[in-house]
Amino acid sequence: MNLNDTGARIEQLLEGLHSVADPTIAERADDLVRLLVELYGAGLERIAETLVDEDQEALLHRLADDELIGGLLVLHGLHPVGVEERILAALDKVRPYLGSHAGGVEYLGVDEAGVVRLALQGSCDGCPSSTVTVALAIEKAIEDAAPEVTKVEVDGVTPAPTPTSTATPASGLLQIQPLKPINPDWTSIGELDALAPGATTTVEGGRVLVCRVDGALYAYRNLCGSCRAPLQGAGLAGEVLTCAACGTKFDVRLAGRSLDGAAAHLDPLPLLSSDGDIRLVV
């Protein structure tokens, strides 16, 4: 069960009840939801109050690590870890998988309205696929760790021009919040512990190429940015991936940019790892 999806569905049902002719139906539904939330909230609070000594507090932290339980604890203000600490932990998890798209991500703070501000330095300028990859990966990591966050704002990313605009994009804020309605489908591809450093593999029916450079994984659409041939058989030396068909070299750490002076680049995909489970958006 996904807490955010379930909450959104409850809101939709309540909005539907508010549209019926009899207003007492919506009022009763609101009262029912409020009482149920108060009931399980009181139960969670009683559990949190019971787990007060050192050993039991460790158990509370383990329970809070569960996505569903942690989300409910946040909802009732009972989470044992502060929002800033959870955001920083989420960024530490996502940093290795942003290596091919951003040189670094810096946490600037979260305000009272739940808006998180970050700063990126790296290779996203002028690459729309990298911009979306960074946005989706950061948003998902923070949303999982701190569901009370209302928006993520990132300084230092140059947005790509719209198809109808010929103006040169200006550096500014990348608003990640507007991506939420798209609701990207994060697909689990299991574990890739057997993939050795310097090796590649394909997943999702051969649509995605995954590379391991040192301890980090990088995912790309399985097409050469130059000749559009599949990348199976491409050689990986350090961070350099060489297409077996045309010989074009790409840097997998730098959003798949060509190292041969060409404008071509690989198409990066958002990839995250949680407890060994690899998830990506195709």
Determine and state the CATH class of the largest domain: Alpha Beta
Distance between the termini: 22 Å
- Tell me which CATH architecture of the largest domain applies here: 2-Layer Sandwich
Helix tally equals: 6
CATH superfamily heading of the largest domain: Fe-S cluster assembly (FSCA)
**Uncertain spans:** 158-182
- Overall shape: it is elongated
Rg value: 22 Å
User: What class, by secondary structure content?
Assistant: alpha+beta
Total separate domains: 3
Mean pLDDT: 75
What proportion of the residues is helical, as a percent range? 25-40%
CATH topology name of the largest domain: GMP Synthetase, Chain A, domain 3
Strand order of the largest sheet: 1-2-3-4
Largest sheet: 4 strands, mixed
Strand content: 15-25%
* Number of separate strands: 15
Order of helices and strands: HHHHHEEHEEEEEEEEEEEEE
Description:
Strands 1-2-3-4 form a four-stranded mixed beta sheet, covered by helices on one side. Strands 6-7-8-13 form a four-stranded antiparallel beta sheet. It has three domains: 3-75, no CATH class; 83-182, Fe-S cluster assembly (FSCA) (GMP Synthetase, Chain A, domain 3); 187-280, Rieske Iron-sulfur Protein. The chain is of the alpha+beta class. Helix 1 (3-18) packs antiparallel against helix 2 and helix 5 packs antiparallel against helix 6. The longest helix is centred in the N-terminal third of the chain and has 28 residues, at 23-50. It is built from six helices and 15 strands. It is 35% helix and 23% strand. The chain is elongated.
